Queue: 4 jobs
Job 1
Amino acid sequence: MQYHAVVSLRLQINLIIGVLMALFIGAMACQHVVSTRGSVREEIAGSNQVATRLLTAVSMVYRASDLAGMASFLEQLGRVRANDVFLYDSSGRLVYTSPASTYKSGRDAPDWYARLVSPPLQKQEIDIGQGRLVVIANSSRAALDGWDGLVRLLWIGGAALVMINMLVLWVAGRVLRPLQTVVEGLERMQRGDYDTRLQALNSREGRLMSEAFNRTAQALADGAAARRLADEAGRKLQENRELTQMIRVHVEEERRSIARELHDELGQSITAVKSIALSIIKGREGSDGGVADAARLIVQAASSMYDAVHEMIPRLRPFSLDSFGLADALADLIGQHRRHHPDVGIRLHVADTLPPLDEAVSTCAYRIVQESLVNALRHASPRYIVVTLTIDAGQLVAQVQDDGSGLAADWEGTGHYGVRGMRERAAALGGRFELEPAPGGGTRASVHLPLERS
């Protein structure tokens, strides 16, 4: 339903007004019943006393005569207000009964209402010598008057209730008409039309609502645009990360291939050259010193080339990472740094429960530890470095902590691509990289990589 909220509000207003009016009419009806009850009792009691006194006085006149005179008097007297009069002879035979009331004859109030407003039955007996008079109060006419008044009150109240509710419904419709416009705008915005705007409504409250609506619509439109930009930026960032990860994987494969070529092809060629030179030295020993000296220079150059190639291979791709795993590869890496930096204490701590690791996770952790070690040794002048490898909450945690000079003041500024690259490496695998001051001084670099990737 298009305006269900506004219609519901109008019905609620009408319901409230109707309930309040019904309560008011009910209170008026109760007050009428209480007032009628008091007036009926007062009237019945008074009329019963008057009738009793009158008949008592008259009975003194007819006490010595027979009942015929008393009956004749009663017939001439007729009905005595709200009382029924009965004349009995000495044997208890009914001689006379007062006539029924002609007031609203043929109608009576409902029994429950009559019982509610009527007083207890009042019966008076008067001894007249040869018989007796019985006077009984009759409140049926007074109760009927009260009932007619109550019915009239209810009819007037009901008509007023209907008319006032119709008036309230009409007034509420006019007052709430701006809300219908607001609801229409909200429904359009719910369907995604954030360019919806409302014209200034008539009343002051309407203008305030339209202005608030337009501000909200503008905020939603701005938010939707920002979300679209954020989604687009997130999508592009994810694409860039995937592309970067593919490039890293390709680079690692190229490094692995180059390292294997250097180890297998170039290493063997250098070894062959060295062997040929040694053969020349052995064959020319004692005959041609110049040739032997040249061969010795070749042997020295080949040995230097062999050592350089073998130092280059681990930097390209450590074979131990593919053959023995991350822990052994880090042990070899730390061993190399110990040889080049004997004055720095470098220790490695590996958890006993280290499970088999995915190649991408192992490579990422190795490269980040490698970069962190190089940064610490190159920039921080540490006395010791501790490398730890643990498992925590389903994640591989690799940490490098030193006691060096700490982070530079501008380490988060532009130009520090090493830290940014390590952070991107970790994010590409769903992990995170953290660089922070270590407790007690120095720097702590840590990477958290999930063991199972979605």
Job 2
Amino acid sequence: MLRRECNDVRRGRRAPRMQAIAALALALCAGPAAGAFAGPQAASAPSHRIFLTDGTAVVSFGEFARASGRVVFTVPIGSPSNPDALQVVSLPESAVDWDRTDRYADAVRHQFYAATRGEEDYAALTGAVARALGDIAFSADASSKLAIAADIRRQLLEWPGAHFAYRSGDVRELTAHVEEAISEIRAGSGQRTFDLSLVAMIEPPSEPLLPEPTLKDSLDYAAAVAQMTDSRRVRLSLQQSILAVLERRKRQVPKDWYSATRKVLAGSIEREHALDRDYAELASRTLRDARDREEHADVAALDRLVADAQKEDARLGYQRPETMQALLASLVNSAAKAREKREAIDRYKYRKSAWSAYRSRIDDRLGEFDDVTGDIGAVRALAGVKGRRLSKAERRVAAIEVSLLPMTPPVELGPAHDLLVSSARLMREALRLQRGATTSGDAAATQNASAAAAGALLLLETARTRIDEFFRRPAAP
């Protein structure tokens, strides 16, 4: 491709003032051709590093990401270029030296690009510049020359930013040649005006790359990350993976270092398991005691359980915040239930003491209601209550109504007491309608008496239920 384009540049007669432009085009054709045909070289990317505020430089397998105030990256366990295992980890953003970390990431991207596609892409750029300069050299129209030059100048200015600043110095030199060509074209066409465009050129990253870590260094970095993470599950998983890789590849690391590192990791893992057991026992014991205290409505004892659990958490070093959060939430819930039960007991005791006289009298009245409900039920069932039975029922209902009127119930039972009075009056009305129906034989009156009796019995049952609930003793603690 480039060889054919360069042959195109050689054809034709060059105007004297454009000989320098044509020479540059030919030089560009000759220079990058070999690189263009060679293709990208096989290369692996240098390891990414995350620099912490304490100076530690941990290895990241590939790029990292920032999300929700944390940095998420993959820890290689083993040689970074060919790790035995990978573990996704996150750390707080505040723990990272972002200026240096970002500079290093730019340097890694620059280096990897330079080792893979950089030369091929640069060859394509110089080929495009060569074609443009060739077109300029053999174009007769000044406006066409300027348009071609302006377009290639734009490509040159944009190229470093889109290609990790690869060979930015060479691109800057090419840009200068194109600027000279533009000036010559304008001067040759008699133009006396010019455009001044100030563009900040991007420089290659200056952050030096660190040597690729050895197997020993990689495992050290992974162990350091395990100590930094605030997730117990991730820490334990990472330490177990490191220990497994260490066992498989122990012949590839120094013997003394292997023994010391294995001892530290095994001890840390055992401490994690011991803490799991301690916190599980703490939660089980505390919840068992809490159920007993809740059953006995012992709020003070539940408060002591909270204090004891927090004291034990402090002794264990506050190592399981999620377990303690769930445990304390359960204790708060138990305390609320116990407090509610204790308040119900205290309410019952107060009502039993303060309203004992009312309760005694209302129980008597409810017993009297029971004496007449059989007759009222017969009226409701259209069974036909007559004669002395009817008169006796009327007297009893009237007496119940009279006895209810002067009674003063608790405020909470005022509506229920009114329902009893209304029930007595509706019973009396049902009996009156029944007497009239018995005398006249009026079927409609009998139906009205039945409806009144049904309503009276419903009011009585509703009132009785509310009174029983008010004076009901809570479940024994």
Job 3
Amino acid sequence: MYARKNLLRPRGGRDQARVTFVELFFDLVFVFAVTQLSHGLLAHLTLLGAVETGLLMLAVWWVWIFTSWITNWLDPERRPVRVMLFVLMAAGLVLSASIPQAFGARGLAFAVAYVFMQVGRSLFMLWALGRHDANNFRNFQRIITWLIAAGVFWIAGGLADGDRRLALWTIAIGIEYLMPAVGMWVPGLGQSTPQDWRIDGPHLAERCAGFVLIALGESLVVTGATFTDLAWDRFVAEAFIAAFLGCIAMWAIYFNIGAERASHHIGATADPGRLGRSGYTYLHLPIVAGIIVSAVADEIALTHPHGHADLTAVLVIVGGPALYLLGTALFKRLTAPNVPLSHLIGLGLLLVLGVAGGTIARLHLATATTAILIIVAIWEWASLTNRGRRPPAHGR
């Protein structure tokens, strides 16, 4: 009934927690998913469109981060685990292809693909763990109970339409996001604790950093593709430069200090499960969402640089960087005594810019947000470098 061979990752070796090629191959599906999300938001820049895209973003992130936890425990070099990942990739392509019409004709396809990935992967874990990890086996009994309960609402939503679909899917994603916060409590099975989630912290840190790179890469693709199709004048050139420098600033804000320090911290802590849950499972969501919204903002600035920004444009152009800074600030707070002052100042400047945004041209508004991101990146780098607080390189 259960796997005879042990499919768990070996622990303790220098290279045994590395991110494998098959994991990176799996991530390619989510390059497509992130692109679909940004294009979907751009095509439906309304309050309802933002809510719907946000819900789909929650689902895409959840299915990806759950798989990353799975490959933290299982060894992707083992053939059954690779086959499982390939099957999930196929379902992920269906999921991603359904995103533009998830609240239309392809709602059921999206729901079925999502539930298949969530429940099917958990069933595989039960099969793999049954003879080899009794404690985690019990955790996945709890997890699959919650996922099946949420799956009922996903499928029901896929069969419904309009507001009923949105309501049912909101309940479904709410169930899934509540699950880790309450320790997957199930009557008769009890509650798990973060101490039960024995993970390799640096592996999870590297996986989440990789997803941030996916989102940043998609932002560059959107900028490059849009720039290619436009007539090149000084306004388009300014918007292109602002978008490119903004992407670099986002990279620096996350990778220059925060990602490396957090990886070192989660590798050294006695309770990596707690940091994995809060810092990576939850707090990376606003970071990725901020990049996706910023990619939409870059396209708006490139294609419509002239004229004052309306409320929608202000919310997108200012809101994307603000969401990103908020996410990185909260993430860095987990491994530092205080929220970075540079991030707080940056959020304050973005708030002021947002209030005045309706009187500023879209191009100038986008340029100003990029300038704020650059200030934050340089400020944090200079401050921590001067104080000698740069984290040790990973692996040292």
Job 4
Amino acid sequence: MVISMYAPNVKVIDVGRKPLDDYVFDAIISFREGVNDIIIKGRGDGISRAVDLYWRLKDRLGDSIELVNVEIGSERFKGRKRSYIAIHVRRRY
């Protein structure tokens, strides 16, 4: 899965150090604005936070979202090779 090759109706949320509730709010607003797919991406220490974010979204939105794909791997990021997780979530109608 290549993140940059997705349709324009896909939002990528890079999980960093902000509170998880900020990312949850961002995802919910994106769904309400018409985004159908969200990719939650965490690198390095952010991997566990990305998984936590997925579960918070799942708890909050329930069956209105579905897990499409989970990808794990490594990539060059800022000159270093770092592990990542990309969790693809889709809004159900």
